[in-house]
Amino acid sequence: MNAREAILDRIRSALRDAPAVPEVPRDYRRSSGLGEEELIELLTDRLLDYKANVFIEEAAEVPQRLAALLEGTGRYAAPHGLDQALFAEADARDGGSGRRVTDAPGQRLSVEELDGIDAVVTGSAVAVAETGTIILDAAPDQGRRVISLVPDRHICIVRAGDITAILPEALRRLDGTRPQTWISGPSATSDIELERVEGVHGPRTLDVVIVRG
Amino acid sequence: MSGTFLGMPSLPVFGIGNLHEHEPFPKAARRELSNPQLRANLGHATRTIRDKRLAVVSELPDWEELREAGRAIKESVMARLPELLEEFEANFTARGGTIHWARDAGEANSIVAALIRDQDATEVVKVKSMATQEIGLNEYLEEQGIAAYETDLAELIVQLDHDKPSHILVPAIHKNRSQVRDIFLREMEGVDPELTNEPARLAAAARAHLRRKFLSAKVAVSGANFALADSGTLAVVESEGNGRMCLTLPETLITVMGVEKLLPGWEDLEVFMQLLPRSSTGERMNPYTSLWTGVTPDDGPQNVHLVLLDNGRSAALADEMGRSALHCIRCSACMNVCPVYERTGGHAYGSTYPGPIGAILSPLLTGITAEENNSLPYASSLCGACYDACPVKINIPDILVHLRGEDVDSKRGKNRRKRAMPSQMDVGMKAASWALSSGKNLGLVEKALPLGRLAAGPDRKITKLPGIAAGWTQSRDIPAPPGQSFRQWWNKEHRAAGPDAAPAAGTDAPGPESAGPGSAGTEENP
Asked: Is this complex scored with an ipTM above 0.95?
């Protein structure tokens, strides 16, 4: 008998008392009635608690904000699916798009290249206000998982319409089979005396730009 | 289709690996308790985490509903385990992953080593994983000439110090910041000699130390927190980004996971991802969670393997009273609230799984008679704090009592046809049963009370009992018995008052429960 058959056989034998399959009571909160302003406020509060930086902008002001955030930064990466117009102001200040490198199919940035880059700008799929969580699902405006991991600073754009109040609402908007990264603040550890310290292997700085409207 | 089991019931096959006590718990505990630094470190850390957990748990108005959903989901997973495993396998395989099945620790280790050799690799980076700790993977790989680098900060501390983990979430919980600095200065190549004991500086040192390893690793080994049967998705929950590094950068990813980690589907993740972070690190959400489903072209590892591990889990499942120990999501809330764990620390439990959950899970996986694991179910005062804290409501105290029973039975020779020699416990229980079976018998026994007073001596304490009762007096004194029993006192007081004052105790049929209106007596009795 191979290992697979042996293990399944052992498990079936262990269950020969045929235990009942219970009904799962889903009496926990599965939706909430928060409005957009309340959601922005809650998400901001949670992100600040994680020591992320938060900027709340009207859509038209995002290029200005990005330009300001990228001021003084060296090269930065962006996925090919992120609206290039967002970088209009940064490019104008640079006199071209010289500092920006794009990760695109067929033109992938290597890990070494990413390691030499200061920051990355990505979009996001959905956010959970109550837990301060931003979920990336590798859509074209967010790119491959590696680009938001290796650079030391992650600038993440969250559309207000993508903010949900609680986790069950967020997961209903996602396809579980896409590669996902859930981000709740910059990388951190509580491994020394259970005291939380921000900044370990993942990006040590997380800037979140919340876009209204 | 799994169907009902129709074959011959097989005997449970227990697990092997780092799951054993090598000495009885009381002996190990006594040694650990004599280390004041350890007690100070543990006291500080567990107090901190308890307060954090309470704060974030009290924020959720539906915490109890989430716990109840979590319990029911896990119970249904166990009842449907064969079909869910087959469903998971089909989905994971359809998405480009490869599944391997491992009956025990040895089989899992050799599968992982062969997969690493297939890539011509001589080193791997590792995400913290209880399953690989349990099977002793690092030690095995070392024998095979493969270096395994732990990348979680606490695991790194333990590995550099050639020590053993003492907590499932924070393996270096027994070390304070100055001890960590000393380990880094001693063991970490190229470390700044000016390193201070600030946690932020220590974390930065770990980042610098591991950066090259991450960027050049060809193979990573991970565990998994959850696996979704309906999609073949795996999840790893972490904080530092070392998990993301391992799960994203290398070409080959090998995950080792116990068969009990399955969840039926996507909808169930919303329950566990609310329960786990708040119960473990006391955060609203952990910094990073990664989900992957087989292979994603052009994104992350292209050679993806999963080793499904039994190693005693099917044996634990066969124990109807104990099987819910497999519901454990490894949050560590039970150890953080346990008065025993807080004082002895994790090393005293011997096994990879310490604390209250370890005291039930280890003997369930190995069998109660393995090495000294029969001492683990006694490593508890049965206070119940672990049950209250458990996010999936595992009734740890009940299972501890059940396993104590198993231990006693195993010593007696459960099979009565064997006519095993009656143990001291059997003799004692027989005697107690006789004494308590009638008022007359009890009265006779009570006549011996003054003898007990004599044994107690002038300090009115009995400090050492003979035989198996010695275990009880190892850490407690028995106060000298009173000069007379309650029933003797009652007799004296009320006999004098006349024939219809109260039924005379110790002389006739009424048993102990009807020996008189006890509450009235206790009020007067000092």
From this structure: yes
Q: What is the Cα–Cα distance from B263 to B269, expressed in whole angstroms?
A: 8
Please give the average per-residue pLDDT across B392-408, as a whole number. 97
Tell me which residue of A183, A192, A191, A111 sits closest to A146, measured CA to CA: A111
User: Which tokens in the block code for residue A188?
Assistant: 């951190």
Q: CA torsion angle for A113, A117, A119, A123 (degrees, to 10)?
A: -20
Q: Which residue of A has its CA nearest to B63?
A: A28
Gap from A25 CA to chain B (nearest CA, Å) = 5
Pairwise CA distance, residues A129 & A167, whole Å: 9
Is B207 near chain A, with CB under 8 Å? yes
- Using a CB-CB cut-off of 8 Å, the residues of chain A touching B284 are 46, 130-132, 184
User: Which residue has tokens 């996986």?
Assistant: B365
Q: Is the pLDDT of residue B513 over 70?
A: no
Give the one of B153, B231, B259 whose C-beta lies nearest to A189's C-beta: B153
In DSSP terms, A181 is beta-bridged to A136, B290
User: Do residues B127 and B222 touch, judged by C-beta distance below 8 A?
Assistant: yes
Q: Is B190 exposed, middle or buried (0-12, 13-18, 19+ CB in 10 A)?
A: exposed
Name the CATH architecture for the domain at A33-212.
Answer: 3-Layer(aba) Sandwich (3.40)
Q: How far is CA A83 from the centre of its chain?
A: 17
Sign of the Cα torsion A84, A85, A87, A93 reads positive
Query: Quick one: closest CA in B to A23, which residue?
Result: B72
Let me know if residue B399 belongs to a domain.
no
Name the domain count of chain B.
Answer: 2
Distance CA B370, CA B355 (A): 18
Whether B299 and chain A come into contact, CB under 8 Å, resolves to: yes
For residue B452, being part of any structural domain is answered with: yes
Q: Which of these three, B262, B284, B315, is where a domain ends? A: B315
Q: What would the mean pLDDT of B452-472 be, rounded to a whole number?
A: 80
pLDDT category, B507, cuts 50, 70, 90?
very low
CA distance B195 to chain A (A): 15
Distance CA B359, CA B396 (A): 9
Distance from the B388 Cα atom to the nearest Cα atom in chain A, whole angstroms: 18
Specify if B422 maps to a domain: no
Give the dihedral of Cα atoms A184, A189, A195, A196; nearest 10 deg.
-30
- pLDDT above 80 for B380: yes
The chain A residue lying nearest B180, using CA atoms, is A192
How far apart are alpha carbons A44 and A49 in whole angstroms?
9
Q: Which residues numbered 25-44 in B keep a CB inside 8 Å of some CB on A?
A: 41, 44
Q: Which residues pair with A180 in a beta bridge?
A: B291
Domain boundary, last residue among B315, B331, B355: B315
CATH number, domain with residue B88: 3.40.50.10420
CB contact under 8 Å between A179 and B286, yes or no, is no
How would residue A70 be classed by pLDDT, with cut points 50, 70 and 90? very high
Q: How far is A90 from chain B (nearest CA, A)?
A: 28
Write the burial class of residue B178 (CB in 10 Å: 0-12 exposed, 13-18 middle, 19+ buried): exposed
What is the residue range of B470's domain?
439-524
- Chain A residues with CB-CB distance to B15 below 8 A: none
Query: pLDDT tens-digit profile of B152-192?
Result: 999 999 999 999 999 999 899 999 999 999 999 999 988 99
Query: Pick from A18, A149, A196: which is nearest to B4 by CB?
Result: A18
What angle, 0 to 180 degrees and rounded to 10, lies between the N-to-C axes of helices B355-366 and B396-412? 40
Give the closest residue to B160 by CA, choosing from B145, B150, B147.
B150
Alpha-carbon distance B520 to B414, whole Å? Answer: 44
Q: Does B78 touch chain A (CB under 8 A)?
A: yes
- Please indicate, yes or no, if residue B348 is contained in any of the structural domains: no
A171 with B267: Cβ contact below 8 A: yes
